[in-house]
Amino acid sequence: MPREKSFEEHYQDNDTPWEINRPDHNLVDFVTRTGLPPGPTIDLGCGTGNNSIWLAAQGFTVTGCDLSELAITRAREKARLTGEGCVFLPVDFLQSLPTGAPFALAFDRGCFHTIEAEADRRRFAARVAEILAPGGQWLSLVGNLDQKREEGGKGPPQLSASQVLTAVEPSFELISLRRGYLDSNLAAPHLCWVCQWRRR
Ligand SMILES: C[S@@+](CC[C@H](N)C(=O)[O-])C[C@H]1O[C@@H](n2cnc3c(N)ncnc32)[C@H](O)[C@@H]1O
Fold this sequence. Notes:
The chain is globular. Among the domains are: 36-41 and 55-86, no CATH class; 103-200, Vaccinia Virus protein VP39 (Rossmann fold), CATH 3.40.50.150. It contains six helices and seven strands. The chain has 200 residues and is α/β, with parallel strands linked by helices. α5 (118-131) crosses α6. Strands 3-2-1-4-5-7-6 form a seven-stranded mixed β-sheet, with helices on both faces. S-adenosylmethionine is lined by residues 7, 18-19, 45-47, 50-51, 65-68, 71, 92-94, 109-111, 114.
């Protein structure tokens, strides 16, 4: 059986279907609707930095981290071109914690859901809590298992609501969990969970 490509290889091959070159509308909606005051923010699995750079433009002090060195190089270049002062760090979040904590806000678009083992998802969530200030929030966009897909069909990893809750609730209080769509350039966008959490 062919092995799965690493994220680094996805970026090397420009095989990055999640890349939309703009902030995800779920993040824009969250920031606009909640009126959250800009503060120190971590973008987990930031990819090439679209969401980090948009947050920085709104006044947030943003650190983006990603395990792909190439994604981080591209994110730094995008930030340089836009003039936004984000910090981008090559960090595997399951192995080490990014500098700059405590953060008031954590965001991830499609990073948490790539963690396959339940124990690792639980550990990921505990680590997000560890770098957040008391009462800090986490907005997480997670592929939704309720969207049926043909065997071998393409799309993001998918989790059920109970899989998300099992991993995250020990460390976070649920503010809201609702169905939404990952922002996309595709004709048929992918169903997701829009999860808003508060650190316990
Ligand atoms: C689906 S991509 C989304 C990228 C970006 N958030 C976006 O919206 O364009 C998932 C990203 O998470 C990163 N990632 C996966 N596991 C990670 C980990 N343990 N630590 C840091 N980054 C990780 C990958 O390298 C990849 O860039």
